[in-house]
Amino acid sequence: MKRYLIILLTITLLLFQPSPPPLYACSCTTEPIPPAVAYADATDVFIGHVTKVTPPYPWSDSTLNKIRHFLGIPKESPTSYEMTLQVIKSWKGVDTSTVTVKYDVYDSCSSYLDDQTTYLVYAYNWGDDTLYTYHCSRTRLALYAASDLDYLNSLPTIPLQSTDSDYSHWGLLIFLFILLYFARLIHNWFNQKILHF
């Protein structure tokens, strides 16, 4: 009798368990916010073309992960990708022609920004002079940001200043020109000295 009572109680508990709330793949906890609110919340808002994507440390090259593997400890998960973007237009914050943004990756839903693609970026600076964006922000392909761009294009833009790297090739050319000019002067001076002997 006791045995049947335990079985009946177990079946009853299994049938009447409270169900967990539904889970949605790759969903954010809140509804998408309007562009005006996203603009107000972000420290930097701009359109940029991704020129370089640097993933978190590679597993195979990480000495720490080799030691963890040897000891049977699971690998640490990557935290954030670092993207370099060529800024096309800025409405808030960014005033340079290139910028680096970190994109936090927490799970399989969080994908990084694709290389050689143009994005509208809502970035956040949380006090460490690093810009971040994340899966649930309004950061998206510029191609799919029409409602955001309608709002943003009604706002003034920030003039972009060139970064040092923009002029690095000009500096090299000027240096080579000056070097050739002095080489020519020295060459002429030697030719005049040799002719006077």
Report what the structure shows.
The chain is of the alpha+beta class. Helix content is 35%, strand content 22%. A five-stranded mixed beta barrel has the order 1-2-3-5-4. It is elongated, with a radius of gyration of 29 Å. It starts with a helix and ends with a helix. The mean pLDDT is 76.
Q: In terms of topology, how is this protein built?
A:
Blueprint: H1 2-15, H2 35-41, E1 44-54, H3 63-71, E2 80-92, E3 98-104, E4 118-125, E5 131-133, E6 140-141, H4 146-152, H5 164-195
Parallel strand pairs: 3-5
Antiparallel strand pairs: 1-2, 1-4, 2-3, 4-5, 4-6
End-to-end Cα distance, whole Å, is: 128 Å
Strand order of the largest sheet: 1-2-3-5-4
- Tell me, briefly, the overall form: elongated
Secondary-structure class: alpha+beta
Tally the beta strands. Answer: 6
Order of helices and strands: HHEHEEEEEHH
Report the total helices: 5
How large a portion of the residues is in β-strands, by DSSP E?
Answer: 15-25%
Spans of at least 5 consecutive residues whose pLDDT stays below 50 are none
Helix percent reads: 25-40%
**CA radius of gyration:** 29 Å
| pLDDT averaged over residues | 76
Biggest β-sheet, characterized? 5 strands, mixed, barrel
Descriptive labels:
single chain; 197 residues; alpha+beta; five-stranded mixed beta barrel; elongated
Describe the structure in brief.
The protein is α+β, with helices and mostly antiparallel strands and 197 residues long.
